[in-house]
Amino acid sequence: MAVLSRCSRAVTAATTPNAAAAKFSYLIRALSPFSSSSSSSSSSTFDADNGLNSRIKPAVLGTLKREPKDRNVQWVFLGCPGVGKGTYASRLSDLLGIPHIATGDLVRDELASSGPLSSQLKEIVNQGKLVSDEIIIDLLSKRLEAGEAKGESGFILDGFPRTVRQAEILEGVTDIDLVINLKLREEALLAKCLGRRICSECGGNYNVACIDIKAENGKPGMYMAPLPPPPQCASKLITRADDTEEVVKQRLRIYQAMTLPVEDYYRSLGKLLEFDLPGGVRESWPKLLHALNLEDEEDKQSAAA
Ligand code: ADP
After folding, report:
1. What's the 159 CA to ligand 1 centre distance in angstroms?
2. Which residues line ligand 1 (CB under 6 A)?
3. Residues with a known catalytic role
4. Which chain regions cross the lipid bilayer (predicted)?
């Protein structure tokens, strides 16, 4: 209960700007990476007219045009359950050396810890419902504090914010640079959740589903190959307890009700980059890198490997 009352104070405080700054002062410090970096005149190949970014405000486009080392990376991934937030956020995290913080993982870690919140969380998560803003902000704050202590800077958030209140609290304490809204055809989302497998040892995310949507009524087909685990993970795969058909459908409903307004919130701030996934990782990853002006970064990493 002590945790809960501390959280409630934090969230209540965070709704008033001055108090929020006090409570989350560590957040502001921790989340202002590269603030001393000079901006660069980039020889960017970024195509601002590619349609993806037409509603993004100029400052955010400016961020994308900078060399990656000169950018702020305080990014948020939005998207329905099963869209692939974890997959793309973790790939970008590896590419940029910025921590990928998935609030779903924080919740699952807490669940597995048999701590005081464990049984309460289990019931909520296994029904596909959202954990309270208070609890989730407390878990996120602890994770950010631990990261700060290890010298982390920046973040790629996945699964947070999920309510407008969470988004307002976050925006009240730090300036999110970019919100990447991943979109995938609805027919594929349920199949992707049901096909998801996680390595119980390294946490790697894989998928056994082979999605082959035929072209119909003028809509193009879509093929998504499975994402198989590497041999060292193959015998350690587990399925998430909340990836059952009934619970996934409930999570999709909750996304529509609670998180779609978060898309609108960031759209109105001009921070939302809409990205329609054209297929599986093989087709989508290069296009996402292009949209984020990070193609050169991957070339550099491959050359160094
Ligand atoms: P999904 O595949 O549905 O995007 P996640 O792994 O992000 O799932 O989250 C799993 C569960 O953890 C959610 O269904 C919810 O119960 C809880 N959770 C994660 N992030 C949040 C959040 N920001 N606010 C409230 N609950 C959350």
Report:
1. 6
2. 81, 103-104, 107, 124-125, 128-131, 136, 159-160, 162, 166, 242, 251
3. 85, 162, 196, 240, 251
4. none
Ligand 1 centre to CA of 262 (Å) is: 14
- Phi, psi values for residue 206, rounded to 5°: -130, 175
Structure tokens at 304: 């160094």
pTM: 0.80
Ramachandran sector of residue 217 (left: φ over 0; alpha: ψ -120 to 50; beta: rest): left
For 4, other C-beta atoms within 10 Å of its C-beta total: 15
DSSP string, 146-166: HHHHTT---EEEES---SHHH
CA distances from 73 to 70, 104, 175, 241 (A): 9, 20, 10, 32
Cα Rg of the chain, angstroms: 19
- Rounded Cα distance between 284 and 211, Å, is 14
φ, ψ of residue 165 to 5 degrees: the values are: -65, -45
The C-alpha angle with vertex 267 and arms to 256 and 163, in degrees rounded to 5, equals 40
Distance 130 CA to ligand 1 centre (A): 6
The secondary structure of residue 51, as a DSSP letter, is: S
Instruction: Quick: pLDDT tens for 75-109.
Output: 999 999 999 999 999 999 999 999 999 999 999 99
Using one digit for the tens of pLDDT, what is the confidence trace for 279-288?
999 999 999 9
